[in-house]
User: Fold this.
Amino acid sequence: MTSPEGKRLNKFISESGYCSRREADKLIEQNRVLLNGRIPELGTRVMDGDHVQVDGRRIGAIDASHEDRVYIAYNKPVGITCTTERHVRGNIIDAIGHKERIFPIGRLDKPSEGLIFLTSDGDIVNKILRAENAHDKEYLVTVDRPLTPQFATQMAKGVPILDTVTRPCTVELLGRHEFRIILTQGLNRQIRRMCEYLGYEVTRLRRTRIMMVGIGKLRPGQWRDLTRDELTQIRKAVAGSTKVAKTNNRAASSP
Assistant:
């Protein structure tokens, strides 16, 4: 049930499990959404008894207990694109083949691999993506030439890219060409740009952890449902998230 003031249309669609709030805005802008048989504007509010349709399909609020929502961890292989657009060859939705409508939380660029979450819960997508939550994301990175202590120090302090300086982060050298990095932000192609600024080229980039969830024994292309305990911890971690998620392309999480 919605509040007496109603609920914003994009939030209503995302909470239904159809797509994320950002994607809902695109659908509204493309006039693919009808509210009570009419084309609505961005910011329109949905009241109790209203009928919402997307591409002719009726959209309704789903179980408030979240029991019918899907939350999975996927080990994305190199070459898979994190898009819900089915016409894109190698899209993540076809790669997984889940029976429910799901969408990724954030992204990994096509040449990168590793852990990514997918869900049918549009509300949690926005909460996890909000920059102020500062959630850890851990990566193993291989570069094209020998690493130095100076490289690790500079990466950890912050690197100027995309008209800003990256936040301080944790960097650990693991070998001549490999290091571990833990970020709390997700600028576009951040790790690759940071390495390029310091004269290195990334040859392999693998995300191994998001927040408290590790990739574990998942092989490339495999996925699993998040456990009840993992979901409880994730919800606690994002419980204080109240602001609107940033939509700036530079904040897109694709290291």
Q: What stands out?
A: Confidence is low (pLDDT under 50) at residues 243-251.
